[in-house]
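Hey,

Quick one before I head out. I ran the complex with NAP overnight. Inputs first:
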Amino acid sequence: MNEMRSPFQLGGDSTMILITTAGKAGAEAARLLAQRGEPVRILVRDPEKATTLAQAGAEVAVGDLEVPSTIDAAMQGIAAVVLVSLAIPTQELNVVNSAVGAGVDHVVKITSKASADSPIARRRGQTEIENGLVASGLGYTLLRNNAYMQNFLMLAPAIAKTSSFGSSTGDGRIGMVDTRDVAAVAVEIAASPASHRGKTYWPSGPESLSYADAARMFSKVLGRPITFHPLTFEEQKRAMVDVGVPDHIAEMNAQAVTLFAQGDSDWINDDVLSILGRPAHTFEQFVTDFAPEFS
Ligand SMILES: NC(=O)c1ccc[n+]([C@@H]2O[C@H](COP(=O)([O-])OP(=O)(O)OC[C@H]3O[C@@H](n4cnc5c(N)ncnc54)[C@H](OP(=O)(O)O)[C@@H]3O)[C@@H](O)[C@H]2O)c1
């Protein structure tokens, strides 16, 4: 079992990969690398939340993306960075600056449908970050992921309790991707970046599904009827706030869901297959693997 150490005590290693946060994709990326026995460091604000990752073999660096000195400390001896966070430009550009200063070779940026004129602030911020990374001179790869299947885990308590879930997605279909695939792609590229430099990928799942399709899949896998009911924008935002999402993030998420309803995320491709050499997880597999959460 690895002890948690201050980043000032971490030893250098030219193959070490830094994961910048331990959220959905970040924690899985760190777990994958640790499981393979490859050197990985993960930056977290609260080390208590990284206990399992530390036990799996990841080095834990305590820091805050708002505090450049803590990023610099975590960046020592790093070859590649998986840049994943809430996509606040100042925070992620702090990481880019730190990576330049430390002579990092490559940054894999977890991003979404970045656009300078998007109605969603987060997507405009993603463009600012992507542009800053490209201009930095660092090796880079952009992963503009479709929406995550794991977002359904926020709805798990409601599905377990009421056998139903609501959303303002309407009939919109989404090529949802499993964050386990996003993490696997990020790790693959960070560990062997040569053929991925300067490239943009659009990881998606293998099928595009509406939330009514998702309800049918939940019913099939869980063995009981699960129903989907439509929500208004305000109801959608309130539902996210009620499960702990901060108000301004719930606003952006609800805006994204409105775009889902308009077909904005109705796209799939085989980027996961081509990078990993195996197919992306299906939604059925996701529900099967996480069934206890929904039951
Ligand atoms: N969710 C999706 O469907 C989706 C789809 C495509 C792309 N993306 C992109 O993926 C990225 C991550 O979004 P997400 O929704 O999946 O979130 P997430 O990675 O699950 O969670 C964000 C993480 O950031 C950490 N964090 C927040 N502020 C921090 C700070 N100042 N310093 C250090 N760590 C901090 C949080 O840790 P604490 O526990 O300390 O709060 C949390 O672990 C974004 O760029 C997003 O656009 C998401």
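The chain has two domains: 7-144, 149-175+206-267+280-294.

Talk tomorrow,
K.
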